[in-house]
């Protein structure tokens, strides 16, 4: 009996019948009634009760199924008045009595023996949503499911596992491991395929939800799980086999070493499936088996490397699948005649999967492991009489080149000797593959291969541009030339330009659009690399390009050089390529040469712009980028074109997040389209229209070009773009690119409004060549924030700046991606720098500090978590990348703190105290990057607060002293740097520390291999610290008696050739000693050594500009004290390459 009144049931039943109607008008009316009258705050619970009853009790199978689907959809949907539609759910907002009623109803429907199998599955999905962890416990459900697992009806068993797969916490919370093992064991050994499959899916979900400490207890299940595979194979159960493989891939991604003891058996079985021996398996089954092997390589590379069979297996399988092309088409006629270069590639699924797999595996396993075995096979295949073998060998080399670069880049000549003969292979697909290899290695081995092998690669590719080759080979040769040109230069390309352009112009006369389009792209990239060398071809090419753009239509078999051609509009892309080519050529030849055709081209682009380009017009991206290039070329002359160019670009950049809540069944449909992405949040499937957001990023990038090039002339557009585009982009949580681009755009926009400040307002970081003057100046410890020459800004601009700063800091506090957080910090630093002559408000300093605390807390947690990633189940394959990202972020945070101290000086010290607990924690850790961060922050505090930093010294001096003698050179470097800062900027507070450290610093500069690559920076910093201490305390009674001894010790550390900053101070100090007789009487040996260390530093460009000139002048003075012959002899002892530097400075 229904819990609802008859009238309600009648009304909702009619609406439900309307949903099932084939009549669009009736169905639309039913949807409107449901949305307007029932999916409301007041009635949603009534609707859910009704749908649960219909799903459970209705005798009409169609209405029952529709009710179950609608129930699940509405249960997941956010309440009508919710502001968090991606997180909130109707089912969690129901009163407990109504939830209990719905649960009871659904469970009765589930256990109904008369319920058809497909309806029970839909009921299972509805039940799963009523048993999620964020809902009250439901003990009756677990008991029902456990009973159903024993039922003789396999549909009950399958449906039970289906629910467990969606809500694995049902098992975790209420059953012990022993009981759970028996449940899955029964599922893996069930005699019904669907039960087995769903039990495996449920097992993976359970495993993912289980604490890692319990994983070892369920590993005994793995043999039973894997034993089901041979039966599926022998019975040709392709779909079942594929489904289990997909579940295993999830397990491998989570815990690859779980399979360590079974790995050999798995490799053997997967080999059988992939090779398809005496079986007729579906393509998807074989490619999923290959994906499983690839997943092992990506998630457990060391386990794969230690297995003697894996290398052979992955290489043989990928090479085999890559030969499966042009089946039943020996001459590849269909491929040769295709206009669309992608269509047939999409049909060759096994080949495509194999190529991608080899690429991914090589990136993870590297050349030392893969290359020897791979080349054993390639050398055999490349001389095979079977063209597919030769083709596969070449394409395999293309796929593996990037990952094997560490080994293969040393074998360029051997590779070219093996590959180049196939450029003239009898089969066109082999020629195509040869062009592909040459293009790929031109990218992967750049720029070395351009410098050493252009005389081999370019003639080979040029030979394929001629009419002797078929269209697709010509096009691919032209595409490979793009790869080569991207990393080439004008000097390399110049000898080949005539032949290149002659052949590419011939391609423009071909009768296929895709050939013409590629020729235009190649010409454009060659022009970009050739720069001014391309001027001689400009007058030939531009009229051709302008003619194409002037035509109202183009036909696919049109000769674009023939003025009598009949044209039908079939290729906006060709016109787009002409815009790309003409504007890139214009950039290459420069503004003066461009002026000959500039008016014609600009007028044509204006005409296209005024036509009203639609979002899906293939001409649109070419036109947008073409305008940006012209802006870069014309500079401020482009201002008059902004009203024409900007409106459509700004409209694209204003795009909002297009997000849709979809059903699980719809997800696969959305995922077929590259412009959509599907993610899961709180059990909901969210479809994101990523192509719109990608276009938004591109539009913002182009707006950045205009703002950067035009500066203050772009000012009238800044406020609207900042408020409507850049600042809101920080909230685009579903698209990383939007947030990153928006953040980097903010300071560029502000720069258009805020005049550049005087360099003298940047605070303490001066470089006074007078050591004593510098020492006295830095004792003032104040930043010049009252510079009378600072520019004035309006209140409105100041408000925009404050809004921007606040938005970036708030973004810093919630941003989950370290790489993007780093961009926020870089932008924040640039924003502060724009107004570095103004003191930030206390509110901004406090908010900034709060953001820093949030970042540092997250970093510390991530680093701590990574300690435990490499264990008995996992390999920490991404540790290097993750650590690199955190190290870069810490560096950016250090720069942000530095900037805050620079503009606030001692005023920031109070907020810095809030950071100190975390800095202290970092100091006490064993992680070098955390310790270095802490030392750098401490150094900034001392530099800008001087002796006011003294209260902190007892908290860091013990750690500094221990790190000074650490075996880790990065810690020695950091602690030496801090010591030098102490002497420079707070000599009164740190005298004892600095003077007692001199002997230790001296010892650090004389350790074995002190100047090798690992130790050089640390040694240079120790040397500079000595110089700073000697400078600061040379008049101190505690140092005077030993000053000359320490100077001699320091002098022996020269030359400084590894660090420009330390070199700058060391050579200033050397200059100071020379000018002030700091060495006492200089004998010829000392002078000779001074000459040597100075010229070596000049040659290494460690000292430049005024500093270099000052020390050179001092050296010339002391050389002047010697007999001319002796002085000349000192200058003539250097090798030829250094003699050039000597003559430049001492001629």
UniProtKB/TrEMBL annotation:
Pfam families with a match to the protein in the record: HEAT_EZ, Importin_rep_4, Importin_rep_5, Importin_rep_6, TPR_IMB1, TPR_IPO5
PANTHER family, alphabetized: IMPORTIN BETA (PTHR10527)
Localization, UniProt: Cytoplasm; Nucleus
Species for this entry: Henningerozyma blattae (strain ATCC 34711 / CBS 6284 / DSM 70876 / NBRC 10599 / NRRL Y-10934 / UCD 77-7) (Yeast)
InterPro entries named among the record's database cross-references: ARM-like, ARM-type_fold, IMB1_TNPO1-like_TPR, Importin_beta, Importin_rep_4, Importin_rep_5, Importin_rep_6, TPR_IPO4/5
Primary residence: cytoplasm
Species lineage: Eukaryota, Fungi, Dikarya, Ascomycota, Saccharomycotina
GO molecular function: nuclear import signal receptor activity; nuclear localization sequence binding
Source organism superkingdom: Eukaryota
Name of the gene encoding the protein in the UniProt record: TBLA0C07090
Protein name (database record): TOG domain-containing protein
A biological-process GO annotation: regulation of protein desumoylation
């Amino acid at each position: 009996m229904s819990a609802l009144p008859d009238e309600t049931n009648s009304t909702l039943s009619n609406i439900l019948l309307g949903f099932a109607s084939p009549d669009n008008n009736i169905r639309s009316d039913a949807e409107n009634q449901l949305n307007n009258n029932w999916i409301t705050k007041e009635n949603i619970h009534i609707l859910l009760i009704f749908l649960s009853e219909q799903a459970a009790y209705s005798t009409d199978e169609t209405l029952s199924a529709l009710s179950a689907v609608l129930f699940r959809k509405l249960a997941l949907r956010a309440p009508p008045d919710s502001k968090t539609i991606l997180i909130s759910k109707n089912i969690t907002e129901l009163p407990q009595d109504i939830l209990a009623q719905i649960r009871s109803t659904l469970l009765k429907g589930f256990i109904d023996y008369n319920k058809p199998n497909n309806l029970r599955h839909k009921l299972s999905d509805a039940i799963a949503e009523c048993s999620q962890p964020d809902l009250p416990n439901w003990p009756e459900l677990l008991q029902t499911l456990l009973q159903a697992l024993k039922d003789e009806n396999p549909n009950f068993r399958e449906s039970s596992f289906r629910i467990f797969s969606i809500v694995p916490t049902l098992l975790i919370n209420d059953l012990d491991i022993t009981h759970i093992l028996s449940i899955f064991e029964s599922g893996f050994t069930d005699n019904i395929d669907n039960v087995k499959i769903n039990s495996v899916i449920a097992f993976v979900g359970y495993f993912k939800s289980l604490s890692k400490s319990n994983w070892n207890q369920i590993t005994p299940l793995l043999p039973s799980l894997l034993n089901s595979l041979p039966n599926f194979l022998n019975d040709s159960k392709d779909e079942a086999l594929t489904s289990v493989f997909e579940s295993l891939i999830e397990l491998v991604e989570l815990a690859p070493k779980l399979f360590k003891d079974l790995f050999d058996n798995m490799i053997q079985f997967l080999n059988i499936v992939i090779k398809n021996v005496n079986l007729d398996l579906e393509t998807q089954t074989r490619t999923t088996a290959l994906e499983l092997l690839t997943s092992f390589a990506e998630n457990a590379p060391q386990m794969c490397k230690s297995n003697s069979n894996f290398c052979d297996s992955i290489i043989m399988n990928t090479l085999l699948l890559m030969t499966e092309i042009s089946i039943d088409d020996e001459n590849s006629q269909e491929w040769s005649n295709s206009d669309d270069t992608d269509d047939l590639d999409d049909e060759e699924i096994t080949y495509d999967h194999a190529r991608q797999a080899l690429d991914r595996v090589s990136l993870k396993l590297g050349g030392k492991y893969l290359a020897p075995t791979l080349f054993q096979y390639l050398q055999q295949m490349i001389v095979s009489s079977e063209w597919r073998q030769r083709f596969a060998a070449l394409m395999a080399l293309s796929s593996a080149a990037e990952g094997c670069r560490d080994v293969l880049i040393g074998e360029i000549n051997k590779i070219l000797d093996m590959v180049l003969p196939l450029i003239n292979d009898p089969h066109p697909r082999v020629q195509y593959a040869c062009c592909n290899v040459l293009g790929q290695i031109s990218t992967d081995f750049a720029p070395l291969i351009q410098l050493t092998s252009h005389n081999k690669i370019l003639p080979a590719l040029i030979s394929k541009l001629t009419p002797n080759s078929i269209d697709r080979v010509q096009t691919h040769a032209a595409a490979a030339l793009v790869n080569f040109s991207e990393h080439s230069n004008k000097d390399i390309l110049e000898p080949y330009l005539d032949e290149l352009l002659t052949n590419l112009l011939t391609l423009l006369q071909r009768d296929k659009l895709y050939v013409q389009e590629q020729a235009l792209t190649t010409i454009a990239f060659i022009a970009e690399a050739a720069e001014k060398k391309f001027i001689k071809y400009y007058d030939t090419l531009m009229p051709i390009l302008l003619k194409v753009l002037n035509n109202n239509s183009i036909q696919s078999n049109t000769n674009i050089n023939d003025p009598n051609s009949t044209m039908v509009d079939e290729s906006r892309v060709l016109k787009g390529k002409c815009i790309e080519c003409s504007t890139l050529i214009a950039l290459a030849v420069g503004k003066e040469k461009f002026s000959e055709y500039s008016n014609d081209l600009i007028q044509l682009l204006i005409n296209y712009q005024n036509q009203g380009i639609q979002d899906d017009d293939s001409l649109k991206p070419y036109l947008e980028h073409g305008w940006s290039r012209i802006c870069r070329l014309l500079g401020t002359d482009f201002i008059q074109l902004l009203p024409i160019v900007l409106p459509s670009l700004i409209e694209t950049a204003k795009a909002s997040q297009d997000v849709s809540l979809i059903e699980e069944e719809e997800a696969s449909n959305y995922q077929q389209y590259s412009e959509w992405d599907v993610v899961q949040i709180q059990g909901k499937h969210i479809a994101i229209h990523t192509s719109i957001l990608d276009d938004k990023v591109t539009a913002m990038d182009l707006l950045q070009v205009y703002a950067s090039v035009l500066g203050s002339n772009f000012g009238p557009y800044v406020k609207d773009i900042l408020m409507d585009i850049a600042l809101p982009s920080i909230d685009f949580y579903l698209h990383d690119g939007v947030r990153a681009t928006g953040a980097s755009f903010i300071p560029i926009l502000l720069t258009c409004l805020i005049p550049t400040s005087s360099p003298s307002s940047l605070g303490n970081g001066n470089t006074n060549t007078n050591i004593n003057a510098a020492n006295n100046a830095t004792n003032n410890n104040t930043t010049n924030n009252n510079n009378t020459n600072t520019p004035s800004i309006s209140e409105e601009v100041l408000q925009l700046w404050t809004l921007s700063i606040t938005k970036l800091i708030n973004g810093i506090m919630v941003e989950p991606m370290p790489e993007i957080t780093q961009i926020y910090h870089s932008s924040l630093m640039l924003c502060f720098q724009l107004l570095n002559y103004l003191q930030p408000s206390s509110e901004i300093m406090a908010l900034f500090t709060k953001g820093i605390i949030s970042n540092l807390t997250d970093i510390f947690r991530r680093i701590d978590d990574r300690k435990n990633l490499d264990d008995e189940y996992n390999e920490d394959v991404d540790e290097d990348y993750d650590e690199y990202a955190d190290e870069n972020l810490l560096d950016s945070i250090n720069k942000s703190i530095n900037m805050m101290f620079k503009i606030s000086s001692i005023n920031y010290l109070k907020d810095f105290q809030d950071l100190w607990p975390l800095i202290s924690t970092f100091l006490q850790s064993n992680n070098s990057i955390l310790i270095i961060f802490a030392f750098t922050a401490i150094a900034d505090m001392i530099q800008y607060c001087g002796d006011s930093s003294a209260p902190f010294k007892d908290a860091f001096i013990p750690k500094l002293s221990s790190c000074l003698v650490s075996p880790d050179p990065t810690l020695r470097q950091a602690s030496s740097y801090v010591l030098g800062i102490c002497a420079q900027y707070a000599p009164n507070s740190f005298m004892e520390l600095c003077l007692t450290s001199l002997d230790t610093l001296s010892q650090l500069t004389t350790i074995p291999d002190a100047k090798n690559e690992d130790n050089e920076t640390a040694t240079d910093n120790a040397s500079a610290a000595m110089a700073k201490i000697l400078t600061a305390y040379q008049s101190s009674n505690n140092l005077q008696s030993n000053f000359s001894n320490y100077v001699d010790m320091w002098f022996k550390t020269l030359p400084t050739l590894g660090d420009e900053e330390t070199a700058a101070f060391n050579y200033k100090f050397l200059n100071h000693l020379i000018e002030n007789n700091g060495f006492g009487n200089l004998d010829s040996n000392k002078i000779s050594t001074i000459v040597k260390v100075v010229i070596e530093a000049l040659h290494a460009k460690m000292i430049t500009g005024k500093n270099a000139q000052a020390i050179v002048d001092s050296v010339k003075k002391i050389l002047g004290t010697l007999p001319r012959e002796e002085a000349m002899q000192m200058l003539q002892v250097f090798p030829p390459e250094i003699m050039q530097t000597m003559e430049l400075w001492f001629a």
